[in-house]
Amino acid sequence: MSIYDKTLHGQNVLGETSQTVSSQAASMSRRALLKGAAGLTIAFYLPRLAKAQTVVAQPETFAPNAFIRITPDNIVTVLSKHLEMGQGPYTGLTTIVAEELDADWSQMRVASAPANAKLYGNSIFGGLQGTGGSSAIANSYEQLRKAGATARAMLVEAAAAEWKVPVAEITVERGTVKHAASSRQATFGQLAEAAARLKAPTGDVQLKDPSQFRLIGHDGIVKKLDVPGKTNGTAKFTIDQYEPGMLTVVVAHPPRFGATVSHVDDGAARKVAGVVAVKTLPTGVAVYANGMWPAIKGREALRIVWDESKAEKRGSAELFEAYRQQAKTPGKIAGAKGDAEAALKKAGKVIEAEFTFPYLAHAPMEPLDGFMMWDGTTAKARFGSQIQTLDQGAIAGILGITPDRVQIETLLAGGSFGRRAQATSHLAAELAQAVKAIGPGTPVKLVWTREDDIRGGYYRPMFVHRLRGAVENGKIVAWSNTIVGQSFMAGTPFAAMIKDGIDPTMVGGAREIFYDVADFNCDVHMTDVGVPTLWWRSVEHTHTGYAVECFVDELLQVAGKDPVAGRLELMAKHPRAAGVLKAVADLAKWSDSKPAEGRARGVAVVESFESYIAQIAEVSVGDGGEPNVHKVWCAVDCGVAINPDIIRAQMEGGIGYGLGHILYAEVPLDSGHVVPSNFDGYRSLRINEMPEVEVTIVKSNEKPTGVGEPGVPPIGPAVANALARLGRERPRRLPMVRGTV
Amino acid sequence: MATYRLKVNGQTHDIEALPDTPLLWVLRDNLHMTGTKFGCGVAQCGACTVYMDGSPLRACSMPVSGVENSEITTIEGLAGREAEAVQKAWVARDVPQCGYCQSGQIMSAIALLQANKNPTDQDIDLAMNGNICRCATYVRIRAAIHDAAQSLRG
Q1: A499 burial class (0-12, 13-18, 19+ CB within 10 angstroms)?
Q2: pLDDT of res. A740
Q3: Hey, how many other C-beta atoms are within 10 angstroms of the C-beta on A397?
Q4: pLDDT the model gives residue A515
């Protein structure tokens, strides 16, 4: 049963009723593409189904390419190659198609594309199908504009042939194809069958001039497609999957990272009513049950002896101490200009700051989970897969089949923030191991509890940044930054990104800074710790943004400069960064308004994933000494703005996500044991702690870039810099508030 | 295992479960009513909020044996002016991002407006701070509650 079967039977993942895409159409389309493998270099960019009209089971479905289906009921369905985990790609990708198609927004629907890297690869991921790095819009914009424009051209051609009028005399407006001179018109649905019989045009299709956009960049018409189902409880996530005979699986994971199962006594667990089986997997001990509660109770009743001989037994205090010592020695040079050491030696006074960043859990609201059916020859998985191609390969490898026998239906994910994008595919692998251990014929739903999530590793790594700088005559003359932390790229399929021992996902935003400093150095130490780590919303910018923006603010303070004007003086070579900084200063009336008594404002500007964000935070200190963040102004330049309201929403959410973590969140380890286990120990931002947010989008004709992550990094340093203006030290150890849970 | 008779959204269901099974897992695994979500299991996040006899309850922390004589309402069974106003406001503001916590948010918001037609920001903080949204859609949740309150006041 795939999403396509389901859409035929009434409900798709968004909880809407529609009849759009047929399973046959989707699978036949894949086959058609595979058959024409020679054409795939072109097809990768805009896969064309040259023979779509002859292979689709429903000839009346117009399938001009891999992304668009138009049915006689006048519904246009966009197949999203990107996972919807809250950042809005379902709506964003659909907007791009609708724009070039000149469709009416009310006729647009979205469905998740199947796992098929040849059709749905991400050019920013080197062709792997996957979502992340704020790349959904960036890698789809041109592709989907062409897809939409091609479909439009074919609908026009179909109308011209039917009405026997020249193509040039036909117009398309909000889903209606018109020939004014003869007063004829037709809907896309009415033309679908005729268009399906046409050959896709060869050569370039005409794209709209952006001045003609009526959806892209505009407010009011586009409404998020996934919102109705997420407001009435009908949206289906992985945890909502049920099939006859399905068993729910929870896995007992080791108490320390790197430990393995030595001995299991499952007698008591098997006696729990509802427990069906207990199996040892490479990752732990799996309890299979009729439902979640017996599975949890069964897991509690297990007695497991763990082999901890290879486990990581250090605590975070110990690790930080080692990192701090290492930060005092030179690492591998990631970026340098002039001679920072010499300039520091020459300087009258060296300003030094050491910042420490804890492990952070992503803690998406929906803990990790996956559903799979395995009949002994093919596997059908349904989950919020974020890198489908790697997950497909991992499942295939474990089950001993080829990846084409692994179907992945990508479901809505209840948040990710990086957690579901696993270079190691560890969740898909555990799911496949669970399915394999129980044997073919039993559908399995693997569910991690919140405790599994918080204690399960794959954290934003701990980091230490040691910064040294010097100011002479009101000018920053030297800057040195030594970074210490773990690389989560090493040993994964992405390890090729590590060049000359430098992992760019440790140093981005620090190896080059916006600020013109004559003598500059950034070096890095890669540590070896047995705690699994992973990218976390905005990746390295979670720590480099904080360290750099706090430190430049401190140096500017020493230099007697205004935080905005002082930065701008040093940013001549970075006009887009300067642009958002000016924009946010205007928005907050930085120069000509004063915050209320007892409050101060701080500023920060960070570029990540080629989007530029500046934020100003207005902060006071509460009775308990906790910072209160009252208001945040935010300016964003993400190139062409596709959906302004989604951009604003991502800035709001990114600010809240960033703020919650710099204020409250850490995952400390005690002798290798993870201390917190749930939201009572891993404090999350709540509504009473959320500031008011005002966003301005800087007008830009640059190519569109992402917004899912870039809203996160500036809020931390903006708050820290505001605290400095209240006479406090910029917090150098995060989180700012500790010991309150 | 024991048999329990539950009244959910006006319908009576006879189900079999362990006596300490949280209502959440009965709703989901026995009745396949999936709008009520699992987020933490320890009444910290509010994703599982339902009503017991009209009052908000964390379904993850209430055993099924404790709800036999009560009326349970889930997101699937919402009705009434407040529910309509809140859901409409949620759609108008495009509140959800990942959406996973939103059933619980909406349940809490409706309960607030049933008790208080004119909530202040502080009232909203008090009523809603048991519901975590990791996407931090809080700005829009607040705005949507004010919108819904306004529409209810006419």
Answers
A1: exposed
A2: 60
A3: 15
A4: 98
Please list the residues that pair with A477 across neighbouring strands.
none
How far off is chain A from B103, nearest CA to CA, in Å?
6
**Quick one: A426 and A505 in the same domain?**
no
d(CA A228, CA B88): 9
Q: What is the 3-state secondary structure (H, E, C) of A83-103?
A: CCCCCCHHHHHHHHHHHHHCC
pLDDT at B85: 98
For the segment A13-30, the average pLDDT, to the nearest whole number, is: 37
Residue from the list A365, A653, A657 with its beta carbon closest to the beta carbon of B100: A365
pLDDT digits (tens, 9 = 90+) for A626-682: 999 999 999 999 999 999 999 999 999 999 999 999 999 999 999 999 999 999 999
B140–A657 C-beta distance less than 8 A: no
Both tokens of A462, joined, read: 């701990």
Residue A640 inside a domain? The answer is yes
Q: Which DSSP symbol is given to A705?
A: -
Give A170-218 pLDDT, tens digit per residue.
999 999 999 999 999 999 999 999 999 999 888 889 999 999 999 999 9
What is the extent of the structural domain holding A22? 3-231
ipTM confidence: 0.98
Q: Which residue of B has its CA nearest to A693?
A: B139
Q: Is residue A473 part of a domain?
A: yes
- Chain B residues with beta carbon closer than 8 angstroms to that of A655: 136
Q: What is the SS3 assignment for B84?
A: helix
Rounded distance, CA B133 to CA B39, Å?
A: 10
| Res A376: pLDDT | 97
Sorted by where each begins, the domain ranges of chain B are 2-77, 81-153
Residue A240: which of B34, B44, B78 has the nearest Cβ?
B34
**pLDDT tens-digit map of B88-124:** 999 999 999 999 999 999 999 999 999 999 999 999 9
pLDDT tens readout for residues A110-138: 999 999 999 999 999 989 999 999 999 99
For chain A, how many structural domains are there in total? 3
Q: B45 vs A365: CB contact, 8 Å cut-off?
A: yes
The one-letter amino acid code at A487 reads S
Q: Tell me how far CA of residue A46 lies from CA of A26, A134, A145, A193, A356, in angstroms.
A: 16, 21, 10, 22, 46
Look at the block and give the residue holding tokens 């969740």.
A427
SS3 A665: coil
Inside any domain, residue A252: yes
Q: What is the CATH number of domain B2-77?
A: 3.10.20.30
Question: Looking at the domain covering B81-153, what would its CATH class be?
Answer: mainly alpha
pLDDT at A741: 53
Instruction: Tell me: do A348 and A445 sit in the same domain.
Output: no
* Residue A715 resides in a domain: yes
- Cβ neighbour number for residue A10 with a 10 Å cutoff: 10
Per residue, the 3-state secondary structure of A296-362, as one string, reads: HHHHHCCEEEEECCCCCCCCHHHHHHHHHHHHCCCCEEEEEECCHHHHHHHCCCCEEEEEEECCECC
Sign of CA dihedral A77, A233, A708, A105: positive
* Exposed e or buried b per residue across A418-431, where buried means at least 16 C-beta atoms within 10 angstroms of its C-beta: bbbbbbbbbbbbbb
Q: Could you tell me where the DSSP H helices lie in A439-510? A: 450-455, 504-507
Domain co-membership, A644 together with A504: yes
The residue to which tokens 């990752």 are assigned = A283
